[in-house]
Amino acid sequence: MRTGKSFSEPFNTNDIQKNIFDLNHVSGYKYGTNFFNVDFLLSNNKDPAGAGSSNGAQEVYVVYRHTLDLEKVTGQSFKYGVVRGLGITAGFDFNTKTDAGYNSKKRMYVAGPTVMLDVPGFLNIGLLALWESNAPYNTFSKVSTPRYSYDVHPMLTAAWGIPLGTSGWSVEGFANFIAAKGKNEFGAKTAVETNIDMQVMVDLSSVVGAKPKTVKVGLEYQYWKNKFGNDSSGPAGPGAIANTPMIRAEYHF
C-alpha cells in the first residue's frame, strides 16, 4: 500500500490525495521471470468519480512482463563486463478508470530486448516497442470514443531492486522514458513522457516478529512529466506533471 496527497491528473489543477492498494507477484522458472502487478487507486473528491460527483475516482491498473533469459534458452553465456545477461521482454498494460472526464480504457502491448546488469539484487534496462490504444467515455458529453490506436513508439525502461549490504535497507523503483506517440484521439500532438518512481525501503520484519523480508516500509517519490503523453505546456496544464512523495508499506507472502 502507498498513500500521498499531491498526485496530479492532466486537465486538473488540484492536488489529489490517493490511496493505492496493490498486489504484486514476481517469480522465476527454468527459462526466465514473470512480473505481475495490479494497482487499485482510490482518489479523493479532487479527482471526482463523475460530473458533479462528490466521490473520488477509482482506477484499476494492471501490468504484466515476462522476460525470457537468452542464456537459459540457448545455453550460451552473454555475461560481459557489467552485463549479467540478455533477455527478451514482452507483456501488457491495461487500465479502467471512472472519473469526471476521460474515463480511460487503456490497452498496451510491449516487446523488446532487455539487458540485465551484474549488481546486487537486480538492475534491468530494456528498449521496448509500445502498441497502445484507448477508448475513453466522456461523462460530460456522454459519448464513447471508438478505440483509437496511437503510433507505435519506443520506451527506454529501467527497473531496479538493490539491497544496501546487509543493513536491511534497499533502493527500488523504475524509470520510463517514452517517445511521443503521434496525435491523440482528439487530434492533438502527444509529448515525450518521463515517469520515474523510486523508493527507499527498510525491512522491519524482526521488529514486528515476522519472518525476514516479510514486512517493509519506506518513502517513495514519483516524478511524471507529460503524464500519459499530455503536453504539460498545453491545455493539460500543470496537472500533466506530478511531483508526488508517498509513504509505502509492503507485506510479502
TrEMBL record:
InterPro entries: Channel_Tsx-like_sf (IPR036777). It comes from Actimicrobium antarcticum. This is Outer envelope protein. Gene3D superfamilies: Nucleoside-specific channel-forming protein, Tsx-like (2.40.230.20). It comes from the Bacteria.
